[in-house]
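Co-fold these.
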Amino acid sequence: MPEPEKKIIAVDGTETGVADGGDAAAQPIVFLHGGTPGITPYAGGTHVWGGVPGRFAGRHRVVAIDLLGSGRTGYPDRPALIDDYGRHALATLAALGVEGAHVVGHDLGGAVAFWLGAKGGGRIASLTVVASAEPTPLIDSLEDLTFLNPPGRDYDYEMQRWAYDRVSYCDRHIDGALMAASLAAAAAPGVTKARHFMADPAALPRLTASIGRLKAEMWTLNKTTGWPVPVQYIWGADDPPTPRERGFKLFETLAASQPHCQFHLVPRCGSFVFREHPQHFVDLVDAFVDGLAETPEAFRYP
Amino acid sequence: MNVASTPRMRDPRRIDIDGVETTYFEAGSGETIFFVYGGHFGGADAGSSAQAWDLNFGPLSSQFRVVALDKLGQGRTGNPKRDEDYTMAAVVSHAAGLIKALGLRDLHIVGHSRGAFAATRLALEYPELTRSLTMVSSGTTSPLISTNEIRLAGSPHPFYTRESARFTYEGYCHDPRAVSEDWIDRSMEISSLPRVPECMDKMYGEGLYFRTFIPNLARLKRETLQWLGEGRLQRPLQIFWGLNDQTADVGGAFELHDLVSPHQRVEVNIFGHCGHFPYREHPARFNQLMSRFVRKVAAQAEPAHA
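Predicted complex below.
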């Protein structure tokens, strides 16, 4: 089966970097990376997944998307809100003809995954949310000091390596390929544009507010028609900026209305579960996707 | 596989273990999974037996050798020979006796509830037989308090009836639809054996439950938690739990994780919409995680499995 191939497509006029491969006829798995463009001191994109998407190429269609302002993807002419990220990801899936996907989202990509779960209708089969603080209940949580004072400047090697290390249990996964791709991404036009707009101090609170509105919608669905898609949460046991209590509370909340929810704690692991423990990560995604497929109707409690 | 009719575990085998006629099941080949179900002799669920694993045994036997026993004084295994053997320690010795008699080693031991406590003791006392440990929903093993007696109190039905068995299992499970008629059938087959009232009479009539069983378990639990906290469990550990378990709070999963994780890897898997029986309430997803854990641990032992 072909390894995911990197290419650039136009999505509603926005240049969009994607990696697309695997078995085109099989059920798709979609990867949404993390990092808040212009805020997080590393330049995210499809490259942060490393070899993990390719591990699914034998049994699935595999699609990884550069979100707005990351990798090779452009950015709007104003600070992007979560709805912009969500609409762009949904339009990208539509452009690629992806239906019924299992969506894997890390960090901000986890919030985009929940946006797709809430509004994506039949395009989404399940969510796997990895170390993602944004969609968790955060009211009265502590100030996040993870990236308070980055060293280096302008997304140089020192700054980005430091950022990856800050959210890792062990720095062994921060290899030359990750750093080279992150340095290249930092110079891309979309990323530069995101940095320009997010430099406005009012921009981040607006993004946070938009995620707050998404969460209000999630909690409302939970209390009314029910959270619509299965979700599993994968958390590193040693993820200082995203403590397990946040993920567990989100799991507990949506499990009230969604019968297919799992929460996993991965030992000796920070935020980048798929880089620090790729085999464990692949096992958890495979087990969830295959387990859902094997669950007989009689066990599908409404 | 369907809730209404699950394939029964077939061909029970019989073996004498220290004078106790012992029943066990065995199927498949490859890495060996050894299942220890929950409950204890004379407990609320007098009908529990190795058949508790019937949703897992068959599916996992296609990749692994699977072995499940009826514990001492339960299922179709005989009652303890002596009053002083109405203990968890004797249950563990009996299970170890079976493992040795069958020549099993490199076991992936999977225990549920009280059976997870026995499984943990096996892994601690017999590391030479153990390759990994899986604890499922074990209030007995966790530092927290179990609430079975509170949750299961007030059954309006007489002992040993289908209605009382259903009342018990529905109290354990999050969704009553997980309690199949097959499950009740198998429970009734066991609780109607003549061995059961004899055992109940020993435990409650003669008072061995509070005089012998509970004090022994309390002492063993103190020792077990101390050993786990010291890092004596030197094998990979994974923990399963149901979010909605009303008999063993899900916080126990994190307590056990925090106790053992300073010393070694501990994986935690928690299911939503799930009470005390994750392997019966969500069998397909449980089996998927179980088989991948065993394959991963096996690959760490022998690269040929990778």
